[in-house]
Each structure stands twice: as structure tokens, then as C-alpha cells.
Task: structure prediction
Amino acid sequence: MMNNKIIEKDYIDFLKQLITTQSVTGHEKDLADLLKNSFIKNQINNCFIDKCGNLIAVIKGEGKGPNIMLNGHLDTVPPGNIEEWSPYKPFEAEIDEEMNLYGRGSSDMKGGLAALFFVMLHFKQLTDKGLKLPGDLIFSAVVHEESAEMLGMEYLIEKTLPEHNLKCDFVCLAEPTDSNLAIGQRGKVELVITTKGETAHSSNPGAGINALEKMIPVLDYIFRTMPQNMKSDPLFGDGTVTVTDCKVKPGSLSVIPDECEISVDRRYMPDETIESLIEEFEILFNKIKSKDRDFKASVEARYFEETTYTGYQKRIKKYHPPWIMKKENYFVIKTIEALKRVGQNPSLKYWKSGCDGSMSCGIHNIPTIGYSGASEEWIHKPKERVNIDKMLETIRGYVEIIKNVMNMEES
Result:
């Protein structure tokens, strides 16, 4: 039985180290090194950083399974406007009288990473006393979750695990869930729409074709028509669409632009595909072109080149496929049983935002759940915070989940 008060100070001190170690996407090295050194200091020596920059630590089991991966990401988004954090600062990890610890990444998701770290220490102490784990317990902290759409998780599953003869039967994501149990998410894709025109001097706009003007009916469709026709799902809710960026070229103040590009954030349902989402816009383009012979447009999923702090490079599609776990799944049932044993009564939920479960479950079909006492309310916001008491309960919850999934009892 775990005593939260015994580990409270250690957890707070460790989480403060994680918060003060800045790790914006692409700059995760210091945090990866901190975690690696912390594992080794606690005699979890099967610990390494892979070629992509992910940090992995393993407590080996007897090979009787199941093998459980405790997963989170190293990177955070930037702090944004520092003044909006007042009276707190994004990297000083201050605590208020209600035991909320403030800092960029506290909720998303260093609070969860710290919890998983202490779960690993708990089972290391038990195995040192003779407890046998049926399967491997794997801690993984991946890079580039925030901006690169599963880059670190993809490398971990497709390259690192096979190279180290590791297998994973069940993934637990310590992303914020407000102590509930996430068993799926909507899909996400960033579409790029480009309209073409013809340059001219801005003093004589009629001599050219303004690509920005040609984008107007597309924007009108996105903002006025599409939201009314979004597919919905009783589990995931409604699909959504919005525009997050708009650029013109050549971008000179005296030149009519001959190219306009917008970024479209599209959240979609399990029965939809990227191909069907693209086709909807192609149908729109044909309708516009039937009335405007100068209209030229294209649509495609966004790709971009990404480089991790180790120098690993890859061309990435900016998307998260939808995924869902059935309520009757063995791992879902065992997780709920475990949490109820420690006095928690989680509701089942589905994430609206994207996470690496799209890689583990959506692409590789590895059973995956999300669970953490951190709150989604504070993701990416000023004054981001995590409640210490909730995170100590998260540690207790994960310990019980692992015991129940592996069908083991502490001696």
C-alpha cells in the first residue's frame, strides 16, 4: 500500500526539476538527460536515449506478459506572453495554498511524466524485494509530440522497440484526463489549400488576378457551410473545421498576390478518411470554377520536414488518425477495476485534441488508454497548473492498474 504523504515532497521536488528544465519541441535534450540520470541514480540501469531522442527505461519481467508501456512526451509548447502568467512565472514551478504547481508543461504533461517516474521507482523497490513482474514495464518519454504529429512515438514503436527486443501489449498515456479514462479521440488533419492568380501592380488591380480574392468563396464555405454539415458521432461529438493561417505571395505591398495559402484544421470521425475530406474540397473547387473560369485551386494534406535534437530527420504528415477502444476490451475493464479499488470512479471519455494514441492504437492497433489527474483545462494556457494531490492519486492509480493488468499481488 502506497503512502502519498511519504512521496509528496519527493514528487514535488522532482516535478519542479522537470518544469525548470525547459523543453520546447526540438530542445528536449536536457530533460531527456535529467530523466536518464534520475533513473540510473535509482538503479534502473536499463535506461537509454534512442537515435530519435526518446528516453526509455525498462524493468524486465519474466516473459509471461503482458508488457506495459507507460508513455508521455518530453516537449512542451512555448510559454507565450509572460505577462499573462502573473503573478507566476512559467519556469519557476511555484505552488499555491491549494497545492497547485504552476509552470509550462505542468499539466501537459510533466506532471504525468513525474507520476510515471515514481510508478517505476515503486516497482523497482518491489522487484528488489523479490517481487516478480510477469511482463516488462517500459517507461517512454518521446520527442516532438506537440508539433510533429507522432514523430517520436513512431520511431519508438517502429524502430526502437524491435531493435532492443522489446514488445508492448498495452500503452498507458499520462496525458491530462481529469482523473477520467480516455479510450479514444477524433481524427485530426491539417489541409493546405492554395489558390492561384496573376501578379499586377496594385495601382492597376484589374490587370491581374488576385489569389486572395479567389480564396474568399473557399473561406466562406469553410466558415459558413461546412460547420452545418459536419458529421457527428455519439462517442466523439461533432467534427470541426477552422482556418488557422493565411499567407499570400509574393507578399509585396504594391503587388497583387498570385498565390494564397490557408491552413485548415479539420477534426474528423472514424468513418471519414483524409481522402474523403480532400474530395469535399475538390467538389467545391469544381463548383466555383463552373462560375469563375479564372479560379484555380488545390488541396492536400500538409507535410513538413522535422529534425529532432539528435539530428534525426523525417518528412511528416501533419495528422492524427482517430482511434477508439471498446468498453469491453480486457485492458479497459482491468483499468476500471483497478481505479475503483483505490477509491476512484473514472468516467469514460474521448479526447477532442490529438495525442500519440493515434500512433499506438490508431496505426499499430496496440490497446491504449489515457489517464492522469492533470486537467485538460490548462493545456497550453497561461498559468498552466497541476494539482499535487491529484497527481499523487494518479501514482496510486497507475500502481493498481499495473498490478491488475498483470494479475499480480504485492508481497
